[in-house]
């Protein structure tokens, strides 16, 4: 006996001894049970009950006052009811695509059997029959278009669930409103306007056959792209309807001899809002923080409540309109000098307005206000150094060195931006900040310790990688950089009495039925500094835009504003300016504006717009001041203070205890949310791994 025969005989003996067929049946049944359970869970947890509302309604974005700000663009057509579609269209579709539609409960066993026989005998499924109208609806609304067993099984189970929630007429109505008809139109109403120039209620037999034929291959069988193929498909449907007794042989012959009269009266609706950068950021945040896919977010009729302040956004936009002279170009195409801005409400942390970039707007393009990370330059100094200095015992009028000296083993020797140091060799703390003294900033960081600055920046929401944890951090040399929104969120802490709230766009999201699916109306709060330190920092930064500071003349035409300026160089050894930052805040808003060059070249920002940054910021802050409540600061300029610190009204022990308790409660809520999210992710991973093998099995239909 050969070696292979011995192996085969041994296998048969083991098979008989251990009753292999019984084990095979047991394993097969167990697998079937697991799969059916999994698919039932998928069907039951899918929001089938909101399907119709989602198809009928557009996703709407609301501003901070809960007023409609606009709608999100999605691939969906004009929704019409079934009685607004001609009887000929409804009859043609059902008779041709799913003639037992009103009899089956979501899937057609006869049609599936016919498709299976065709697959076995002809290796072909061109005759159709495998999917009902209900299955097509669930596939279009809930599933991807991949041809796998897993998708097919999901389609079947979801179809059963849809049939439980809706009548046959409702399903037919939803399908005809959600189907793609080619040439960029969804839904029978827009398709009728696109191909025939009139509403779907007036579709005749000829036109109904053309549109029904288009559904089988929207890019192939539509009459605009290939008239001859569409003509042949129309005639085939006419013959079929005559054979089924739906229309007479005479009508069929007449239709087949008739031309397809085309007339395009379709007008594509534009994206329904005037705040493109803000809405792009809303979409990004929703996709990032929720389990809602972007395609669903755009098309399923969600209600998104945001922190958008329309007046602030309009004023921010106006600061860039017709001001291309500031940047030295025409403001269109791809301008050489770029800019971005972010405005945050210090009381709530909500993003009130953003400007994502100059030039022609690209839908879902690069948003510099939220996606661009650049070195912050000297705007890092209040966050990384001066708060820590006050906490370590320095005060507003403390004397600090202003001398050029070397630090560390590599003899790091910073100089001031204007190469000037005070003849006395020292300046007061507020003046060092107002004049953005590099010498004083590096001295303080060296004295207090780099790690202290790193930890303080972390409290402000800015993580510093190990490679950047050197004394150059004092001048804002960050490889990863910060975004305008991130920097605005950090500075809002000063205006909010030392409490930082992570900036966010979305307050809550409701689905089309009104159910809240995401809520961030009580964001976590983090105590970064005491109220007294925050007040002292505001006093010192009020001088930034006064006669003592580097931002003199760039503030608003009236009212007080505190903040900081900053700039970065093109590269080490190249002193040309690449980035300019201005940060300003009042009790009502925080604004961060960046101006810079996307690409490093021979041009210098100083040459391209020598005074434009200050002019731009003056326009912006004046505009924002005009639409704000203009709440005054409770403190004054540090340069006008004789006291070494602000004396704030003391609070009772119970007030302090309640505030501390509130902060810890918010932190506990945040951690609990993170734990719950991790648990959901682990559970999701287990389910996904259990079904991964199905995704590799291809079907020819």
Automatic annotation (TrEMBL):
Residues 343-587 form the Penicillin-binding protein transpeptidase domain. Residues 74-239 form the Glycosyl transferase family domain. InterPro entries: Beta-lactam/transpept-like, Glyco_trans_51, Glycosyltr_51/Transpeptidase, Lysozyme-like_dom_sf, PBP_transglycosylase, PCN-bd_Tpept. The chain crosses the membrane at residues 21-41. Coiled coil: none annotated. GO terms for biological process: cell wall organization; peptidoglycan biosynthetic process; proteolysis; regulation of cell shape. GO terms for cellular component: outer membrane-bounded periplasmic space. It catalyses: Preferential cleavage: (Ac)2-L-Lys-D-Ala-|-D-Ala. Also transpeptidation of peptidyl-alanyl moieties that are N-acyl substituents of D-alanine; [GlcNAc-(1->4)-Mur2Ac(oyl-L-Ala-gamma-D-Glu-L-Lys-D-Ala-D-Ala)](n)-di-trans,octa-cis-undecaprenyl diphosphate + beta-D-GlcNAc-(1->4)-Mur2Ac(oyl-L-Ala-gamma-D-Glu-L-Lys-D-Ala-D-Ala)-di-trans,octa-cis-undecaprenyl diphosphate = [GlcNAc-(1->4)-Mur2Ac(oyl-L-Ala-gamma-D-Glu-L-Lys-D-Ala-D-Ala)](n+1)-di-trans,octa-cis-undecaprenyl diphosphate + di-trans,octa-cis-undecaprenyl diphosphate + H(+). Keywords: Carboxypeptidase, Cell membrane, Cell shape, Cell wall biogenesis/degradation, Glycosyltransferase, Hydrolase, Membrane, Multifunctional enzyme, Peptidoglycan synthesis, Protease, Transferase, Transmembrane, Transmembrane helix. One of its GO terms (molecular function) is peptidoglycan glycosyltransferase activity. Gene3D superfamilies: 6.20.370.110, Biosynthetic peptidoglycan transglycosylase-like (1.10.3810.10), DD-peptidase/beta-lactamase superfamily (3.40.710.10). This is PBP1A family penicillin-binding protein. It comes from Fundicoccus ignavus.
């Amino acid at each position: 006996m050969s070696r292979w025969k011995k192996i085969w005989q041994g296998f048969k003996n083991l098979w008989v001894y251990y009753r292999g067929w019984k084990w095979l049946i047991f394993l097969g049944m167990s697998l079937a049970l697991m799969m059916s359970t999994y698919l039932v869970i998928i069907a039951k947890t899918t929001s089938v009950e909101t399907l119709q509302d989602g198809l009928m309604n557009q996703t709407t974005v609301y501003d901070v006052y809960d007023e409609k700000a606009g709608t999100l663009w999605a691939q969906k057509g004009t929704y019409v009811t079934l009685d607004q579609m001609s009887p000929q269209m409804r009859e043609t579709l059902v008779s041709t695509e799913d003639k037992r539609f009103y009899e089956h409960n979501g899937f057609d066993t006869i049609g599936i059997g016919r498709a299976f026989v065709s697959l076995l005998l002809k290796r072909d499924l061109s005759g159709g029959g495998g999917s009902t109208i209900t299955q097509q609806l669930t596939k279009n609304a809930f599933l991807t278009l991949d041809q796998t067993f897993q998708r097919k099984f999901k389609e079947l189970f979801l179809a059963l669930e849809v049939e439980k929630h809706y009548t046959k007429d409702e399903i037919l109505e939803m399908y005809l409103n959600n189907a793609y008809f080619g040439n960029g139109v969804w839904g029978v109403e827009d398709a009728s306007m696109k191909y025939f120039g009139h509403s779907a209620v007036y579709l005749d037999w000829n036109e109904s056959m053309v549109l029904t034929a288009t559904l089988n291959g929207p890019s192939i069988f539509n009459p605009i792209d290939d008239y001859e193929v569409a003509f042949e498909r129309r005639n085939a449907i006419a013959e079929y309807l005559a054979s089924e007794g739906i229309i007479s042989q005479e009508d069929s012959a007449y239709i087949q001899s008739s031309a397809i009269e085309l007339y395009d009266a379709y007008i594509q609706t534009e994206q329904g809002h005037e705040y493109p950068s803000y809405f792009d950021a809303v979409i990004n945040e929703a996709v990032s923080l929720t389990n809602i896919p972007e395609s669903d977010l755009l098309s399923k009729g969600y209600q998104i409540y945001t922190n958008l302040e329309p007046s602030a956004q309009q004023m921010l936009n106006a600061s860039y309109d017709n001001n291309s002279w500031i940047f030295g170009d025409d403001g269109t195409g791809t301008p050489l000098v770029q800019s971005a801005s972010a405005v945050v409400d210090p009381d709530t942390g909500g993003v009130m307005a953003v400007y994502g970039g100059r030039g022609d707007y690209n839908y879902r393009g690069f948003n510099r206000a939220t996606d661009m990370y650049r070195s912050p330059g000297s705007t890092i100094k209040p966050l990384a150094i001066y708060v820590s200095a006050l906490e370590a015992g320095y005060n507003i009028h403390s004397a600090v060195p202003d001398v050029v000296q070397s630090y560390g083993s590599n003899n790091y020797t910073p100089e001031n931006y204007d190469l000037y140091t005070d003849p006395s060799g020292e300046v007061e703390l507020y003046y060092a900040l107002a004049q953005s003294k590099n010498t004083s900033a590096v001295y303080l960081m060296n004295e207090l310790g780099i790690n202290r600055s790193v930890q303080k920046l972390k409290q402000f929401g800015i993580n510093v990688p190990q490679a950047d944890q050197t004394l150059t951090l004092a001048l804002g040399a960050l490889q990863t950089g910060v975004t305008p929104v991130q920097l605005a969120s950090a500075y809002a802490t000063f205006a909010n009495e030392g409490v930082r709230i992570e900036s966010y766009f979305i307050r809550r999201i409701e689905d089309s039925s009104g159910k809240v699916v995401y809520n961030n109306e009580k964001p976590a709060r983090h105590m970064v500094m005491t109220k007294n330190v925050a007040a002292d920092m505001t006093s010192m930064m009020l001088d930034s835009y006064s006669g003592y500071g580097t931002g003199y003349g760039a503030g608003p035409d009236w009212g007080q504003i505190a903040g900081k300026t900053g700039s970065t160089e093109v590269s080490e050894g190249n002193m040309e300016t690449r980035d300019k930052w201005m940060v300003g805040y009042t009790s009502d808003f925080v604004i961060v504006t960046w101006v810079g060059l996307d690409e490093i070249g021979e041009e210098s920002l100083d040459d391209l717009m020598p005074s434009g940054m200050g002019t731009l910021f003056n326009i912006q802050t004046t505009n924002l001041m005009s639409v704000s409540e203009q709440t005054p600061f409770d403190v004054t300029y540090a340069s006008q203070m004789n006291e070494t610190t602000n004396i704030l009204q003391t609070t009772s022990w119970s007030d302090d205890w309640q505030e501390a308790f509130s902060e810890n409660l918010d932190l506990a809520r945040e951690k609990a949310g993170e734990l719950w999210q991790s648990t959901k992710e682990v559970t999701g991973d287990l389910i996904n791994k259990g079904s991964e093998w199905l995704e590799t099995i291809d079907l020819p239909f």
